[in-house]
Specification:
138 residues; single chain; mainly alpha
Length: 138
């Protein structure tokens, strides 16, 4: 801890600069979503992946340490931290999905060939998914 106390300005400068870089990449994420430009999503995906990696390491280490502190902390901390980490991973995964599928100009926007589209009015519904014959509603 003496090293941290002696290098507090350097550590604080690193923390502020990394937070500024992530803030800038978050603004690029918003701009890329508004303009439908997929390259603007990439900085946020990379910086958030680094943050998630650090969070996973902290989660594993602090969960292990919490077993030696108190029983209540050993129960509550992993649940709350795991939910937060899971939510963060889901947000990252959804952004990667948007980057790879929805903003990709090479992906076709048509219905896949194995999907059967049945257009019916209000009087018919599909009866059997294997035969795809329509059934009259009485």
């Amino acid at each position: 801890l003496d090293w941290v106390d002696g290098q507090h300005m350097l550590l604080l400068a690193g923390l502020v600069s990394s937070a500024s870089v992530h803030l800038l990449s978050s603004l690029l994420l918003i701009l890329g979503t508004m303009l439908m430009r997929r390259n603007l999503l990439l900085p946020w995906i990379i910086t958030d992946l680094l943050i998630i990696s650090v969070m996973v390491l902290l989660f594993i280490s602090w969960t292990f340490v919490s077993f030696f502190v108190d029983l209540l902390i050993a129960i509550v901390f992993p649940v709350i931290a795991g939910l937060l980490l899971g939510l963060w991973i889901i947000l990252w995964r959804n952004t990667v999905h948007m980057y790879s599928i929805h903003f990709n100009p090479k992906m076709s926007r048509t219905v896949p060939k194995n999907t059967i589209v049945v257009k019916a009015g209000y009087t018919t519904v599909p009866a059997d998914p294997r035969t795809h014959k329509l059934k009259q509603i009485t």
